Amino acid sequence: MRLAHVSDLHLVEHEDGAGASPLAVARAIAEDIAAIRDALDLVVVSGDLTDRAEPAAFAAFEDIFAAIGLPLITIPGNHDGPAGMHAYTATSDRFAGWHITNRVVEHGALRFLGLDSCLQDTTEGALDQDALDILEAEVTRRDAPPLVIVMHHPPLLLGLKRFDGFCELEGHDRLMGILRAADAPITVLSGHVHRPYTVQEGRITCHVAGSMVAPYDSPLPFGDSPIRPTTPQDFYYIHDIEPGGAHVVTPQRVRGLAP
Ligand SMILES: [Fe+2]
To answer: Name one GO molecular function term (predicted).
Structure first.
C-alpha cells in the first residue's frame, strides 16, 4: 500500500496576507496529492491541522483535503486543542470518519491505530490509560496485520536536548515498554517537531513529516555545524509499505508552492 504523510499544517480561518498563507500551502499540497491520487491508497495527517483550533480552520482543512478524493486518517496535534478537534469531529460525519483517536482502521492489509498524545494549551504531551490500554491490546494482538501508529508526538527520542524537549510525553515509560515488547515491526507516523527525520530503535521506526508551513530552520540543536536545512521544506513523504515488511520512504516535492 502507498500513502502520503503530511503534518503540521497550522491552518487559520482566513488568509492573513503576510507571507505564504497556510491555507495556500495546504491547497498546493492537496492539489499535488490529487495529481498522483491514482498511485495512492491513503493520506495520513499527523496533527496540528490548525493553528488555533477554530472550527472554521477545521472546516477549511476538511474542504481542502476532501477534494483529493482519497481515504484520509488523522489525529489531533497540540495546536488542535485537542478539545477543539474532538468538538469539531462531532459536527461532521466525514471528519469523524477521518479522525481515528483510540480507533483502528485497516487499509491495504495494514492496521492503523490513532492516538491523541496532546494536552490542552501545552507543547508537552500525554497518553492516558485508555490510550495505552488500547495500544497494548493492539500490539499484543495475534494474527493481525502489521501495525502503523499515528500520533502527534514522536515517541522515539533522539538524544538531542532541544528536539527531545518538544517530545516530553506523560506515559512515555509505559508507551516504550509496550512498543519494545512487540514481536513484530511497528511503524509510527508523527509530526510536532517541524523538521523531518526518521529514527529507529529495534523494531520500532518513527517517521516525522516536518512542516511546510512553519519549518524549524534554526541551527539548533546542531550548533554551528552545517547539519541544518538550507531551504524551507517543500516536500511531504510517500510511504510504500508492504505487509511482508518492505518499507520505502520517498520525499515528494510539492509543485505550485510559492518560492
Ligand atoms: Fe506543529
So the answer is: metal ion binding
CB hemisphere CA count around 22 (13 angstroms): 22
Residue 144 C-alpha to ligand 1 middle, in angstroms?
32
pLDDT digits (tens, 9 = 90+) for 70-125: 999 999 999 999 999 999 999 999 999 999 999 999 999 999 999 999 999 899 99
The answer to whether residue 116 sits within a structural domain is: yes
How many whole angstroms from its chain centre is CA 239? 13
> What residues are neighbours of ligand 1 (ion), with CB under 5 Å?
8, 48
Report how far ligand 1's centroid is from the alpha carbon of 78 (Å).
Answer: 7
Asked whether residue 259 is domain-assigned, the answer is no
Q: Which one has a higher pLDDT value, 196 or 64? A: 64
Amino acid identity of residue 64, one-letter, is: I
Which band of pLDDT confidence, cut at 50, 70 and 90, is reported for residue 219?
A: low
Q: What residue numbers bound the domain in which 40 lies?
A: 2-253
In a domain, 258, yes or no: no
